[in-house]
Amino acid sequence: MKRVGKDFFTGDVLNVAERLPGMDIVIKRGESETRYTITETEAYNGTDDRACHASKGRTPRTEVMFREGGILYIYFVYGMHWMMNIVTGMENNPQAVLIRGAGDISGPGRVTKVMGIDGSFNGESVITSQRIWIEDPGRRVKIVSLPRVGINYAGEPWISMPWRFLIRS
């Protein structure tokens, strides 16, 4: 399988978010590699997107989002769940794709729990990392786009943006 490179992740968040479902997240622990097919993503599109953490400006928490695409933005929510995002786009244009589903795991908090993702992965490059990366096995999947979930605080038009992408079953 082909490891996904920098050119893919420096693309626009909406393009990356729509193309990630069907690709694999690979986690390596010791000599063992585990693959999870990405089934659902959600795009967060920069400082104008009120649902995006970067809309509040550059902070210690969001600093990683302002870097060049291809690194992980991992944060803790509700005092119990790690969320895994992949930063996209060019430096100083903060965009990220939330991984909402992988394999038979649904829900971003469950995804990170099953995969063993925690804050130690924050800022890690999926382009060069030896413990986590994305591979494109060339699967052809049908994608449906829907509004994002859990962002009522952002208001319209952000609530209704069809920026959640999932594999149509």
Can you give a write-up of this model?
- This protein has one domain: 3-methyladenine DNA Glycosylase, Chain A (Roll).
- It has three helices and ten strands.
- The longest helix has 8 residues.
- The chain is globular.
- The two termini are 23 Å apart.
DSSP strand tally: 10
How many separate structural domains? Answer: 1
What summary fits the major beta sheet? 10 strands, antiparallel
CATH topology: 3-methyladenine DNA Glycosylase, Chain A
Q: Averaged pLDDT, please?
A: 94
Percentage of β-strand residues: 25-35%
* Tally of individual helices: 3
Secondary-structure element order, N to C = EHHEEEEEEHEEE
Radius of gyration: 15 Å
Which parts are unreliable, with pLDDT below 50 for 5 consecutive residues or more?
none
CATH class: Alpha Beta
CATH superfamily: Methylpurine-DNA glycosylase (MPG)
From the helix content, strand content and strand pairing, which structural class follows? Answer: mainly beta
Helix content: 10-25%
Second rung of CATH, namely the architecture:
Roll
Q: Whole-Å distance between the termini?
A: 23 Å
Shape verdict: globular
Quick synopsis:
The protein has three helices and ten strands, in the order E-H-H-E-E-E-E-E-E-H-E-E-E. The chain is mostly beta strands and 169 residues long. It has a single domain, classed as Methylpurine-DNA glycosylase (MPG) (3-methyladenine DNA Glycosylase, Chain A, Roll), CATH 3.10.300.10.
